[in-house]
Design a protein that fits this description.
Elements (H helix, E strand, L loop, with lengths): L12 E3 L2 E2 L4 E8 L4 E7 L6 E2 L1 E4 L7 H13 L13 E11 L14 E10 L13 E8 H7 L3 H8 L1 H4 L13
Parallel strand pairs: 3-8
Antiparallel strand pairs: 1-2, 3-6, 4-5, 4-9, 7-8
Helix pairs in contact: 2-3
Length: about 180
């Protein structure tokens, strides 16, 4: 009888050595102080633009750690570096529960149809270099926050970007208090 592959107890196997995704993820709105938002085009779905997203690697992975890891993996931006200190990452204490698109359900355990997505903001200096993970993203753009929200394919991502004015310390507020 052949030996069975080693399996991490917290990660059931989908196929040989491919664990199911954990249905708990982060969405990180990366932006400059003047509210230019980094948008990424998905490699597996050209024309689909989004912010950084990604699932926990382990059930016990802390959400801020998931956010930092995903930012590094997808953009090359190192949260915790002198240019982007850990304090630049803010947990917005927002969570979206949404139906997983059918095209991506095979990545999850049988019967899993919903994901809980936790929203973070990350302020980076203008001109921060971006190095894309080519298997994940084709290109990137920095856009004013409202244009970025309009570009999103995901309603929860667009909504998160629209919260940027509230969480950015008022950078997008006019002198009369109106959101611009």
């Amino acid at each position: 009888m052949p030996a069975s592959p080693a399996v991490h107890p917290a990660a059931p196997v989908v196929a040989a050595d491919r664990p199911y995704k954990i249905p708990e993820s982060v969405l990180v709105v990366i932006h400059t102080p003047d509210l230019q938002v980094l948008m990424l085009e998905r490699a597996d779905r050209p024309g689909f633009w989004q912010c950084v997203t990604g699932s926990k690697d382990r059930p016990d992975e802390a959400l801020p750690d998931t956010a930092c890891r995903e930012v590094q993996e997808e953009t090359g931006i190192c949260v915790g570096s002198p240019a982007v200190p850990r304090a630049a990452l803010q947990d917005w204490a927002l969570a979206n529960v949404y139906e997983i698109y059918p095209v991506w359900r095979h990545r999850y355990a049988p019967g899993v149809t919903k994901n809980t997505e936790h929203v973070f903001g990350l302020t980076v200096p203008a001109g921060t270099p971006v190095t894309l993970a080519p298997r994940e993203h084709l290109q990137y753009r920095w856009l004013p926050w409202r244009e970025a929200a309009d570009l999103c394919f995901s309603p929860s991502n667009a909504e998160a970007i629209l919260h940027l004015a509230r969480f950015s310390g008022g950078a997008a507020l006019a002198s009369d208090g109106e959101v611009r």
